[in-house]
Amino acid sequence: MRSCAPLLNPPFKPAPAPHPNLNPNPNAASAHGPTLLRCALVARAAPRDDPLPAPSSFDFLALKRELEEQEEAVIPVDATEGGGDDEVVNEEDGERVPKRIGSSGRRTGRQMARRSGLLAKQVISVSSARSLGFVSQLWVDASSWVVALVEVRPSLLSGDADKFLFDDIYQIGDVVLVQDESVVENEFKLVGLHGLVGYNVVTSRRRNVGKVRGFTFNINSGVLESLELDSFGLTIVPASLVSTYCLFVEDVLDIVSDTIVVHEDAISRVQRLTQVSITDCF
């Protein structure tokens, strides 16, 4: 049996494989080519074969302008029926728009107007475009506290007066519109109706509160909301020259002749509208 003796000097010794991520001489390339790290760096820095996607051509400014043009082209539609009001205060947004009322298009919104805002307006017939005169008085039904009749005269200072129902008003703007001239052909009695201006206002115990110089009412229904008071009851005296007050109609008990009787504690609920001191008059 033969045995194999180990060789003292092997014919060759395999050299240790270099570390794949190390290059002892960075300025010289390996005999087997560039290292893996260098290949990775070169591959990262090399330009990509596939081109970058082109920038989007979507124009946000053009889209915004298009949307704005569409919004301008939309016609605003009123949420309620009918039109607007004249010098009537819209309590929701304060906007002044033409007011259409009457049986042909009564609105149900709460639009308040002052008596002085309706006086002296010209009344025009829609069918004939003829003037029927100027508003000279508003007559109030004391049983329901509603403006019942509108009085017109050919001029503000003279002429025979005609009357028509407040419900016959078609629209109020710079002028008062009615359907036709037939609205003034009827005869109306003033029984139970009051002009209110100049009336004394007292409590149930005869305490003086003031005199009526005007009132505020709902332009849609004609229902009165409040009375405007001062010391004289003269509409020719500007409100800027006198102290004025507001008294709500719900405090009224009765009307006796030219005197309005209110609750005794109504004085505590009177609200001041304007105040004039003695120094303001000089």
Automatic annotation (TrEMBL):
Superkingdom of origin: Eukaryota
Extent of Pro residues compositional bias: 8-23
Region of interest (Disordered), residue spans: 1-30, 79-108
Ranges of biased composition (kind: Acidic residues): 83-94
Coiled coil spans: none
SUPFAM superfamilies: PRC-barrel domain (SSF50346)
UniProt name for this protein: PRC-barrel domain-containing protein
Organism: Aegilops tauschii subsp. strangulata (Goatgrass)
Lineage of producing organism: Eukaryota, Viridiplantae, Streptophyta, Embryophyta, Tracheophyta
